[in-house]
Write a structure and sequence with these properties.
This protein is an alpha/beta fold. It has 2 domains: about 100 residues, Urease, subunit C, domain 1 (Roll); about 280 residues, TIM Barrel (Alpha-Beta Barrel), CATH 3.20.20.140. The protein is built from 11 helices and 16 strands. Strands 1, 2, 3, 4, 5, 6, 14, 15 and 16 form a 9-stranded mixed β-sheet that branches. It has a 7-stranded parallel β-sheet with strand order 7-8-9-10-11-12-13. The longest helix is centred in the middle third of the chain and has 13 residues. It is globular, with a radius of gyration of 23 Å.
């Protein structure tokens, strides 16, 4: 590998250094702006300053050689779980949540959206303890259930599904709330979906539906062709119970009709919500997801899902073009949550950037039900920049050869290196 650092940080006042950070030599893939070619990316004051070829290294205080890497906008994962609410083990509860900064940057993710772990009563606590403390940019869907995903029972208690209360929370926290969530509803009625839709109308925000338990009385096709509005989100799209193929192996017409209506299909891989039996033929017939997301939690991260780059790699393996995979992991999910300022490298936008090495080989990928699919490429995150600061550096590009730093490097102010006495 070429020298990791081309230019070390110099005195801020040196002439000609108009950029704080320069990523040089990479292939920029920025689908929102139609870019897929070698370009350099310069950062100033936490914002994208220039995206162009041939930028001079002398113009930046810090230059990182990213030759051989694909440079993308920071990834936007719109289905994760970040709010631990209880000590009781529950596969769908907020108890299985993770801390955002522990898992975001190492995966190239700079924006996470919690998918309804907190409800309208405990959302304020979630914000104080997680959202406002994270270095990762965190948004959230408010669960229609009062206590969110604290327990399965809490999500089934109909009197706690109160649209007006959800709307009040959404208004109070409008800078971080992006929608309403309903999940795991087990009854044969549409009550949870209908209440979420009412909350969405009151707050003028979309809803995300985890269809929960599939019932004959409320079929999936009816959800996406009659219930959901344009802009609403069906997550866990490639789940085993979603009807995809007719007796001739062709996609059912209702799926195309739902997409024409403006319903958004989200992956939400999770520990049990993507099967290759559905995903492979759907991708082959052009039914690509609007957003690729993980449903990250303690179980899914240690199972077949693993992380967002792995999930993206599965869609690469299934035949979705790299540019479309990146689009569905950056600006498209950002637009779905009504934050179009994110997910691209437009000059003036937040300097949220990821850099990936595309590994070539023979890789096995697991779905969430024990199925395997093999692919020739796999994404590995080597560098993440959040608001202009390097937050993940897999190959130590921001470090230098220790032998050049002198005998006092690493010694804190006021400390002394005291050698032992010489032997007589």
């Amino acid at each position: 590998m070429r020298s990791a650092v081309l230019l070390m940080t110099l005195a801020a006042g040196l002439a000609g250094q108009q950029y704080d950070l320069l990523l040089k030599g990479g292939r920029v893939v920025d689908p929102k702006n139609g870019i897929d070619e070698p370009r350099d990316v310069a950062v100033k004051d936490g914002k994208i300053a220039v995206v162009a070829a041939g930028l001079a290294a002398s113009e930046a205080r810090t230059v990182l050689d990213v030759s051989g890497l694909v440079i993308t906008p920071g990834l936007v994962d719109i289905h994760v779980h970040l709010y631990s609410t209880t000590g009781v083990a529950n596969a769908w509860a907020g108890d299985d949540s993770v801390r955002p900064d522990d898992f975001s940057f190492r995966s190239g993710v700079t924006t996470m959206v919690d998918a309804g772990s907190a409800g309208w009563q405990n959302f304020g606590h979630f914000r104080e303890t997680v959202i406002d403390r994270a270095q990762t940019r965190v948004f959230a869907f408010v669960n229609i259930a009062r206590l969110g995903m604290m327990t399965q029972a809490a999500e089934q208690y109909e009197p706690d599904l109160v649209p007006a209360e959800v709307a009040k929370v959404a208004a109070r926290h409008r800078d971080v709330v992006v929608g309403v969530k309903t999940a795991h509803w087990q009854a044969t009625t549409w009550t949870a979906v209908d209440r979420a839709l009412e909350a969405g109308r009151l707050a003028n925000i979309p809803i995300m539906v985890d269809f929960g338990f599939f019932k004959q009385e409320r079929p999936y096709w009816q959800l996406v062709t009659e219930k959901l509005r344009p802009g609403d989100i069906s997550t866990h799209f490639y789940r085993s119970c979603v009807p995809f193929l007719d007796e001739n192996g062709k996609l059912y017409d209702y799926l195309g009709e739902a997409r024409k209506r403006g319903v958004k299909f989200d992956v939400g891989h999770g520990a049990g919500s993507l099967v290759f039996r559905n995903a492979v033929p759907a991708v082959a017939q052009g039914l690509w997801p609007d957003s690729i997301s993980t449903d990250l939690h303690k179980q899914s991260m240690n199972a077949g899902m693993m992380d967002l780059p792995t999930t993206m790699s599965k869609f690469l393996a299934m035949g979705m073009p790299l540019r479309e995979v990146i689009a569905a992991s950056t600006f498209k999910p950002a637009e779905i949550i009504h934050h179009p300022e994110l997910g691209h490298l437009t000059v003036g936008s937040a300097a949220d950037i990821a850099a990936f090495k595309i590994l070539e080989g023979d890789f096995g990928f697991a779905d969430s039900n024990g199925g395997q699919y093999r692919g020739r490429r796999r994404l590995l995150c080597e560098l993440t920049v959040r608001a202009g600061k390097v937050t993940w550096d897999y190959n130590a590009r921001t470090a230098v050869d220790y032998r050049t730093l002198g005998p006092a490097y690493g010694v804190r102010e006021g400390e002394f290196i005291v050698p032992p006495p010489k032997k007589k």
